[in-house]
Amino acid sequence: MTTGVVGQYEKAAAEAREALHYEGNDVTPYANLAQDYLALNRLDEAKATLAEALRKLDDPFLHLYTYYLAYLQNDEAAMKQQFGWMSGKPGAEDVVFSAQSDTEAFHGRLQKAREFSRRAVDSADRNNARETAAVWQVNAALREAEFGNPAQARQAADAALHLAPGRDVQVLAALALAQAGEIPQVQRLLDKLNSDFPLNTILQNYWLPTIRAELEVRRGNAAKAIEGLQAASAYELGQAPPLMPASMYPVYVRGQVYLKVGQGQQAAAEFQKIVDHPGVVLNFPLGALAHLGLGRAYALAGDKVKARRAYQDFLALWRDADADIPILKQANADYKQLE
Hints:
With 339 residues, this protein is mainly alpha-helical. The chain has three domains: 1-86, Serine Threonine Protein Phosphatase 5, Tetratricopeptide repeat; 89-226, Alpha Horseshoe (Serine Threonine Protein Phosphatase 5, Tetratricopeptide repeat); 245-339, Tetratricopeptide repeat domain (Serine Threonine Protein Phosphatase 5, Tetratricopeptide repeat, Alpha Horseshoe). Helix content is 74%, strand content 0%. It has 19 helices and no strands. It is globular and about 55 Å long. The relative contact order is 0.09.
């Protein structure tokens, strides 16, 4: 297992630099090093690494990480440049379409996000990459669930499972369906994943505890949910396939559980972890929703000043958001109560 998978990005960067001494014409160490520098928020070094790599290698993943770098630097022109390079290239196009869907979702532009997800699914399917197409589909399901659209989440998750019910799709479908309240179906998926992949470290220590926590909350067992998430602590900053970028999902779910049981300070600490790691979550929508979670946590803890600031940060990120998204409607209503 690589050190980046468990979130040890300083060590991972050192290993990638060492690998470049022996594999200077290989995409993998360059891509790994760029990813590690992004996670560490060392953007100048990430930029230099990618520029050096692209002078001699022209690989879609190098362009994808250049896209992510541009995202962190709020450089829309550079993002469009990378989007243009990857568009029209089988095996690259679907990746950047899905990345763009996350960018749109990060800012609450759900209709645009849905369109880019649809294009990602169609592109991968045309390239006979059905499992990848299903991952893009179930990524859209997760987004719908987080934004408060359970019916759309169920529909997208079921469509992904129908398209290609592999391990990665089952994992994300279970998480989306758990949030949508489909407890019996999720339990069946959990049991199958646990039985089929007992030695998969990331599955057993990152995804399954996160999904179980969602189920336990809905069963009224918040304390058990928090206890179960302890298994993910060593992995929560890491890269957890199939999602890319890292989502920090265990941290986000732990924060949500603390909110449900009225522990505002503990919830704030979890959401702050996500806010403090923009180079880890990149454009994944939980990065924006963490600001909302932080606002709710501070409101619960009685700190209206910090709560208003966090709500304002979220609403600024979502200033161009679709007005009919349930989580946004609730956020606006809650923010008015703080004024």
